[in-house]
Amino acid sequence: MRSRLALLAAAVSVLILTAFLVPLALLVRTVAADRATVRATADAQSLAPVVGTADPDTIRLTVEQLAADSGRPVSVFLPDGTVLGAPVPRTPAVTLAARGQSLTAESDGGREVVIAVQGRSDGTRVIRTVVPRSELTAGVTRAWLVLALLGVLLVLVGLVVADRLARTLVRPITELSRVSHRLANAELDARVAPAGPAELREVAGALNHLAGRIQVLLRDEREQVADLSHRLRTPLTALRLEAESLRDPADAARLTSAVDGLERAVTGLIRQARWRSSAPDGTAGSDAAAVVGERVAFWSVLAEDTGRTVTLDLANGPLPVGVAADELAAAVDALLGNVFAHTPDGTPFTVRLAPDAGQVVLTVADSGPGMPTGAVLRGASQAGSTGLGLDIADRAARTSGGRLELRAGPGCGAVVLLRLGPPRP
Questions:
Q1: Are strands 286-287 and 320-321 parallel, antiparallel or unpaired?
Q2: Which of 14, 24, 257, 366 has its CA 20 to 30 A from that of 161?
Q3: What is the CATH number of the domain that holds 15?
C-alpha cells in the first residue's frame, strides 16, 4: 500500500508538472526568439535615418560597422538594384518590402527582418538583416535544463511527502493486522494503540472492544465449565464409595479404576477451564505407549464382556508426543468409545501404535458398518451420542502439531488415524 500511494503521488506530480512545464518551456523558446528579433529590428531601424539621407559610400560604412558590432549580416537594397553590405540576392521578403511594407519572415538561415525606408525621390530603400537560429534559441537549452531539474526536484519532494503521509496510514493498518493475528492465535491480551486518521482510530477502538468482549465471554464460559465439572465431584465420590463397598474384589477394582479415570477427566477439565490458556502451546508431553496401553487395557474388559476381539500392536516405548497425558487419554477413550457405540457387539477391532516420519501414529480400525458422512464435524452424530468424540481426538492431534484422518476399512469398517507430533522444546 505504501508503494502504491507513492506511485500514485509520483504519477499525479508528473502529470501536474507536465501540464505546467511544457507550456512554460514553449513560452521560454518563444520569448528568446522574440527577444532576438526585437534586437535585430532595433539595429536595423537605427540604420533608417542614414539610409534615408546619406550617400551610398556612407551607407556602406555604416552597414559594415553595424554588421561587425551585431554579428549579424546586414544588407541595404537600393532602388537601382545595388546591394550595400552583405552581398545576398533579393528575397521575396525584400521584394515585398520594396513596396513600402516592413516585415519579418522565416528563412532557411533563421528569421529575416526587412525594413522599408521611404521618402526618397529615387524610390524605396530596404534594410535587411537575418537573425540566425543559434541566436533565436540562445539560452533556451539551459532554461529547459533548469526547468527539467526543477520538475525532478519537485517530484522527489512530492514522493518524500507522500511517503511520510503513507507511513502515517500504513503503520496503524500494519499494527491492526498484527494485533488481529495475535488475537487469532488466542493472545487475548493483545491490544492496539489507536493512531492515524480518525477512521483508523475508530477501527482500533472497535478491535480493542471486541478483544475485551471475547476475553470476558471466554472467561465466563471457562468458569461455567469449571463450576459444572466441580459439581460432578460429589456423585463421583458416591460412586467411589459404592465401588469400594462391593464384595467381589475384581468388580470393586474395575469400578474403582473406572471412577479414577472419570475423576482424572473431570480434574483435567477443571484445570483446563480455569488455568490453561485457550491456545494450546504443545509444550506438555506424555508417553503415548504408556497412555495407549493403559486405556486399551481398561477397554479390554468391556470388549471381553461384549464378545469383541481386541488386537493390540503397540510399539516399544517410550514414544513421546506433544500432548498432555490427560488429553491423550481422553482422545483414546473417545476413539475406542466410538467403536463400542457405533458397532454391534462381537465386532473385532485393532489398535496399533507406531512411530512414523517423526510422528507417532495411533490407528484404530474396526469391522463395523463404517463412518457416516460428516462424522468429524463437532456435535454431529447419527447414533444418539454427543458427537464430540472425534472432535476431542482432532483437537488433541492439532495440539501436538498432528492431525486426524478418517479412512474406509478394507471391504467394510472404519479406520481412524491419530497423528501426534513430538513435544516442542
A1: antiparallel
A2: 24
A3: 3.30.450.20
Task: For residue 70, give its domain range.
Answer: 2-141
pTM: 0.46
Percentages (nearest 5) of helix, strand, coil residues in the chain: 55, 15, 30
188 in a structural domain: no
Check residue 190 and give left, alpha or beta (phi > 0: left; psi -120 to 50: alpha). beta
**Is the per-residue pLDDT at 229 higher than 90?**
no
Strands 349-356 and 310-314: parallel
Report d(CA 239, CA 242) in Å as an integer: 5
User: Where among 141, 167, 188 does a domain terminate?
Assistant: 141
Grid cell locating 335: 476413539
pLDDT at 328 over 90: no
Q: Where are the alpha helices (DSSP H) in 47-139?
A: 48-53, 56-70, 92-97, 133-136
Strand 83-85 versus strand 103-107 pairing type: unpaired
pLDDT digits (tens, 9 = 90+) for 261-295: 777 776 666 666 555 444 444 446 888 899 999 88
How large is the average pLDDT for residues 186-204?
Answer: 85
More reliable by pLDDT, 240 or 100: 100
Burial of 106 per CB tally in 10 Å (0-12, 13-18, 19+): exposed
